[in-house]
Amino acid sequence: MSQINDAGLINYDIVLKKLNQIQTTLDSDDKFVQSHSSKIYSSSEKIYKISELIGGHLKVIVPKIEPPYINYLPLDINHINVIDNPPGVVIMILKTVAEKLNLTYEFIIAEQEDMGTLVNGTWNGAFGKLIYNNYDVIAGGATLRYDRSIYTDMTFPFYYQSYGMMIRSPKQNRNYTWLIVTDPFSWPVWLGIAVSIIISALIFKVLTRLLKNISNEEQFSIVESLLMFFSIFLQQSITRQPINCSCRILIAFWWLSSMTLLATFTGSLTALFAVDSIIYPFKDFDGMVQSIKNGKYTLLMDINYPSKIDMIAKSNLPSYKKLWYEMYDNHKVNFVDGFLSGIEHVKNNPNYVFVAPKEMLDIYSGLECNTILLNSEILSSYLSIPFKKDSKYTDYFSDQIRQYLEHGFIDKWISDYKAQIYSENTKRCNETKQQTSSDVTLGIDKAKGALYVYLSGISISILVIFIELIFYLSILLINKFK
User: Domain spans of the chain?
Assistant: First the structure.
């Protein structure tokens, strides 16, 4: 068991040891001899004989309890209550195959909760036990990797796993300063409206100028044209109108466009009052890396998943290289011992982002009201069940896994675990806020943007009147001294 400090995190000397071990593997850059045969998973051709598989006895090493693949270790695999107490995907695969082949298992719990990695040509963890000792299979979801497939037989992948990112919910969801003015439209839309008014005014000025000598069209200055189209946008009437159809058509369609824009503005503003939206500090993996680089967040991971740390370290993608630099060189990473410890740490510490299996984060994001699961997937990989090299059972298990996938049993077994967790934690989330009618009323905090616009209009009007007075007095003085 890893040593835990007062903050509930793994002591940093252990963290540095783990990171240095991975960095050493990177620096050595182990190359595999091409003579090794790699059996990732078998083909669809049946090369086994059922008669040779029936009645076998397999020694199974269990590195760790890892829901929803290993929910618990059953005392008797043939007597499991799969409805009320689902054992997990891998246990169900072992159980169903045992029923078909009359197999028996001997489960041995590993001393270390680690699948194992290849370090200086030697395997450690559960893979080391499987390769060097008298074991037949690892009970768990092992990431499908080339180096593992050289020394063991990996079954057909039973699940495509992705990692997700969870953070604590921000305390302040929205800044209402300019909500009533700017939020219904984005800034590009406001800019587009301003440009449309200017372009329409210029076109209108050109049209009236061309029609001056043809039909004695009413003339407007460029300022008057701008004010006309701005007034139409605000649904104000205009005192002067053009005579010709071309100019009237331009004004009519701008009026229709303005009505549509204002209707959209009103609907969007109503939605903003009714929905308490959340402003995310970042939305994807690149944003997370940038937030970690800027010191706003610290990465949090489970120390029992070194293969994912290894994936980050060995990736050639620029974003993963940046993340590994922040982890290894700038020490912007902390580890917890177990998934639930990570959830609790994120709940109590706002500046951490917990990276963990997304199927588990998805379950607990529905239980923990003060956490947010970002809609982004990272560190995706296939999960497989490792067997001893040249095992006669690998192909049969692979065929069974294919059938389970085709018939939806894998997804069902994961859903069974999710339903069990929800049934056991119906009252865990105690921060749910029911929305009442008073929540959607227009308070001063949401309306102050309109007040600022009104005060700005008064200030601009006073400023303009002073400028006009100064200009008028200047003309009088000039005429007086002529």
Answer: 32-158+385-424, 168-173+278-380, 179-274, 447-480
* Rg of the chain, C-alpha, whole Å: 34
User: What are the strands, taking DSSP E only, across 9-148?
Assistant: 57-62, 104-109, 118-119, 122-123, 137-138, 142-143
Please state, in angstroms and rounded to a whole number, the distance separating the CA atoms of residues 130 and 154: 12
* Single-letter code of the amino acid located at 449: G
User: Would you state the CATH architecture of domain 168-173+278-380?
Assistant: 3-Layer(aba) Sandwich (3.40)
Return d(Cα 129, Cα 138) in angstroms, integer. Answer: 9
Are domains 32-158+385-424 and 168-173+278-380 of this chain identical in fold?
A: yes
Give the Cα-Cα-Cα angle 73, 74, 78 (nearest 5 degrees). Answer: 145
Contact 204, 218 (CB under 8 A): no
194: which 2 tokens? 């301003």
Interatomic CA distance for residues 368 and 345, integer angstroms: 12
| Sequence-separated (6 or more) residues with CB below 8 Å from residue 303 | 2, 10, 14, 15, 18, 335, 336, 337
Burial environment of residue 70 by CB neighbours within 10 A (0 to 12, 13 to 18, 19 or more) = buried
Answer whether 164's CB lies under 8 Å from 436's CB. no
Mean pLDDT of the chain: 81
Q: 179-274, which class in CATH?
A: mainly alpha
Res 342: pLDDT? 92
* Phi, psi (deg, nearest 5) at residue 353: -120, 120
| Helix orientation angle between 394-406 and 89-101, rounded to the nearest 10 degrees | 120
Class of domain 32-158+385-424: alpha beta
**Interval 242-279: pLDDT, tens:** 877 778 888 888 888 888 888 878 877 777 666 666 67
0.90 exceeded by the pTM? no
Q: At 328, list the tokens.
A: 């290894």
6 Cβ neighbours under 8 A, 6+ residues apart: none
CA distance 295 to 326: 10
